[in-house]
C-alpha cells in the first residue's frame, strides 16, 4: 500500500526520536547499575525495551506504507551525571517526543492516515505516562531529598 509521503516523514521523525531515547535510556540504565542503583537502572532498562518495541511498530508501519524507515538521522543524547540529572534529561527527551507526536498525529489526521494516527496516539499515551512518572520522581526528590529518594527504591506507576 503506497502511503502518504508527508505521513511517512512524520513517522520517520518520530522513529528518530525513539531511537535516540532507546540509547539514552539504555545508557542511563547501565550508568545507574554501575552506581549500585540497580532498581532504578532496571526501570530505565525496561523503558528502553518499551521504546524499542514502539520503534519496531513504526518501522513496520513505514515499510507497509512502502516507505523507507530512516534509522540514520539520530539526534543528540542527553546524558545525566547524577540520578536527578538523568531523570531531568529523560523528561526533556520525553517532552520533545511528546511535541513531535502531537504534530505527527495532526498531520496523519490531515492526510487521512488513520492507522498511523492511531499508532502514534497509542505511543503518545505511553509517552504521557512516562512523563508523569519522571515528573513524580523529580517531585519526590525535591520533597524528600536525593539520599532519601535513592533509599526508597523505585515506585512503579508505569
UniProtKB/TrEMBL annotation:
<dbReference type="Pfam" id="PF00210">
    <property type="entry name" value="Ferritin"/>
</dbReference>
<feature type="binding site">
    <location>
        <position position="51"/>
    </location>
    <ligand>
        <name>Fe cation 2</name>
    </ligand>
</feature>
<keyword id="KW-0479">Metal-binding</keyword>
<dbReference type="InterPro" id="IPR002024">
    <property type="entry name" value="Bacterioferritin"/>
</dbReference>
<keyword id="KW-0409">Iron storage</keyword>
<dbReference type="InterPro" id="IPR012347">
    <property type="entry name" value="Ferritin-like"/>
</dbReference>
<dbReference type="InterPro" id="IPR009040">
    <property type="entry name" value="Ferritin-like_diiron"/>
</dbReference>
<feature type="binding site" description="axial binding residue">
    <location>
        <position position="52"/>
    </location>
    <ligand>
        <name>heme b</name>
    </ligand>
</feature>
<dbReference type="GO" id="GO:0008199">
    <property type="term" value="F:ferric iron binding"/>
</dbReference>
<dbReference type="GO" id="GO:0020037">
    <property type="term" value="F:heme binding"/>
</dbReference>
<dbReference type="GO" id="GO:0005829">
    <property type="term" value="C:cytosol"/>
</dbReference>
<protein>
    <recommendedName>
        <fullName>Bacterioferritin</fullName>
    </recommendedName>
</protein>
<keyword id="KW-0349">Heme</keyword>
<feature type="binding site">
    <location>
        <position position="94"/>
    </location>
    <ligand>
        <name>Fe cation 2</name>
    </ligand>
</feature>
<dbReference type="InterPro" id="IPR009078">
    <property type="entry name" value="Ferritin-like_SF"/>
</dbReference>
<dbReference type="InterPro" id="IPR008331">
    <property type="entry name" value="Ferritin_DPS_dom"/>
</dbReference>
<dbReference type="GO" id="GO:0006879">
    <property type="term" value="P:intracellular iron ion homeostasis"/>
</dbReference>
<dbReference type="GO" id="GO:0006826">
    <property type="term" value="P:iron ion transport"/>
</dbReference>
<feature type="domain" description="Ferritin-like diiron">
    <location>
        <begin position="1"/>
        <end position="145"/>
    </location>
</feature>
<feature type="binding site">
    <location>
        <position position="51"/>
    </location>
    <ligand>
        <name>Fe cation 1</name>
    </ligand>
</feature>
<comment type="similarity">
    <text>Belongs to the bacterioferritin family.</text>
</comment>
<keyword id="KW-0408">Iron</keyword>
<dbReference type="GO" id="GO:0004322">
    <property type="term" value="F:ferroxidase activity"/>
</dbReference>
